[in-house]
Amino acid sequence: MRHALIIGGSRGLGLGLVQEHLTRGWHVTATVRGPSDGLNALRQNAPDRLVIETLDTVSTAQTAALAGRLNGQSFDLLLLNAGIMAGRGLALGDVANDDIQNIFLTNAISPIRIADALSSRVAAGGTIAFMSSILGSIGTNDDGRAELYRASKAALNSLIRSFRARHAADDVTILALHPGVVRTAMGGPDAALDIATSVRGVADVIEARRGTGGQAFVDYRNQIIPW
Ligand SMILES: NC(=O)c1ccc[n+]([C@@H]2O[C@H](COP(=O)([O-])OP(=O)(O)OC[C@H]3O[C@@H](n4cnc5c(N)ncnc54)[C@H](OP(=O)(O)O)[C@@H]3O)[C@@H](O)[C@H]2O)c1
């Protein structure tokens, strides 16, 4: 049975990705920073295949503790999903420094720190997938909206490429994913996609690119996005 470790599985796309992988027969370890009714409900239906772990992704102490608890386990997929929005609609000068620090720590720095701490738990031929966004594409940034969030995902994409370079010898496929614009707390009620459509596409992309090696920035339909 294949085993996924999904970082940030409490709600939204993360919860959807946990459900999708359970439906596909995977064993899933999902992390949350607080209680999740959604995950608890999923565990009722798959008590032997869903493990819930605690992690606030910006905490290096909690990251090290999780790596310790997972010592000896092997994952076919490490999926780093947790992310936040900040400063939407505001000029940079009007965004509090704490919010700027938080969005870069959460969206760019922490996923890479966690991947570094856990990459040795990823099986040969496995996948490390980061939830990026098309808004992180510098090459397609012509309208500038959500610019702080955009910059945090562009920083994530840069760090993903550095991570790949540092792990060039590893037998692992690295993905930066755009899930589409999805009706979650972050995406809002008018977003084009429902969660089920997005996570089905994301899981299909991960499956299609399994074992291919290298790195790719792709959307939920497996379309390449310019970095
Ligand atoms: N929705 C979209 O249209 C869209 C488009 C492109 C990319 N994305 C990306 O997809 C990912 C998921 O987004 P979403 O739409 O599902 O957003 P969401 O509904 O707001 O969910 C965000 C998730 O991230 C978790 N999280 C945030 N900060 C965390 C921290 N410090 N420690 C642990 N968990 C943390 C949240 O946990 P709590 O429940 O504890 O808050 C929650 O599970 C994000 O990386 C987002 O940037 C979303």
Describe the structure.
The chain has 227 residues and is α/β, with parallel strands linked by helices. The chain has one domain (3-219): NAD(P)-binding Rossmann-like Domain (Rossmann fold), CATH 3.40.50. The protein contains 6 helices and 7 strands. The chain has helices spanning 12-23, 37-45, 60-69, 97-118, 147-166, 195-208, and strands spanning 3-7, 27-32, 50-54, 75-80, 122-131, 172-178, 215-219. Strands 3-2-1-4-5-6-7 form a 7-stranded parallel sheet, sandwiched between helices. Strand 1 (3-7), helix 1 (12-23) and strand 2 form a beta-alpha-beta unit. The model has no long low-confidence stretch (mean pLDDT 97). Bound molecules: NADP nicotinamide-adenine-dinucleotide phosphate (NAP). The site of NADP nicotinamide-adenine-dinucleotide phosphate has 27 residues, from helix 1.
Strand count? 7
Q: By CATH's scheme, which homologous superfamily applies?
A: NAD(P)-binding Rossmann-like Domain
- CATH fold type: Rossmann fold
- Decide which structural class fits the backbone: alpha/beta
Lateral strand order in the biggest sheet: 3-2-1-4-5-6-7
How far the N terminus sits from the C terminus, by CA atoms, comes to 34 Å
**How many helical stretches?**
6
Amount of beta strand: 15-25%
* Helix content range: 25-40%
CATH architecture: 3-Layer(aba) Sandwich
Order of helices and strands: EHEHEHEHEHEHE
Bound molecules: NADP nicotinamide-adenine-dinucleotide phosphate
**Gross geometry:** globular
Rg value:
16 Å
Biggest sheet descriptor:
7 strands, parallel
